[in-house]
Design brief:
The protein has four helices and nine strands, in the order βαβββαβαββββα. The strands form two sheets. Strands 5, 6, 7, 8 and 9 form a five-stranded mixed sheet that branches. The chain is globular.
């Protein structure tokens, strides 16, 4: 079985977050969702647990970062094409997201970024498979 990842993100308004990601074409797993948590399905192995701030505080002794003022993480998702990058970023901005950084175009790699309604920073990136083949990171 492949390893799965569950990223926990605090949100101020769970319904607004669910509506935002739903407009981007993502679904939710009701088995792991309730009135304080929504399990956002990115892929078969990647999930984001959108958790109300009050519930999120039960999992940590630390302060919750104010993502409008600080960057706690940059979440980067792959896309199948440059057009899909633009489609996702444009949909995010049209659905209540906020502009983030300028687009990045390296020819073989193209990306755009946006902030979700809670100001978590997201990037969508496409890499030319031919240019990536044999490339070491």
């Amino acid at each position: 079985m492949p390893q799965m990842i569950f990223v926990n993100l605090p949100v101020k308004d769970l319904e607004a977050s669910k509506n935002f990601f739903g407009k981007l074409g993502y679904g939710f797993n009701p088995q792991f969702s309730d009135e304080t948590t929504a399990c956002l399905i990115i892929s078969d192995t990647i999930f984001f647990m959108l958790i109300t701030e009050s519930r999120f505080k039960e999992f940590t002794k630390k302060e919750i970062a104010d993502a409008e003022k600080t960057t706690e993480a940059i979440i980067c998702l792959s896309a199948d094409s440059r057009a899909k990058v633009d489609e996702m970023a444009d949909a995010a901005l049209a659905s209540g997201g906020f502009p983030a950084n300028d687009p990045m175009d390296e020819g073989f790699m193209y990306g755009r970024s946006f902030e979700d309604p809670d100001h978590h920073l997201w990037e969508v990136m496409w890499m030319d498979p031919e240019a990536v083949e044999g490339r070491q990171v």
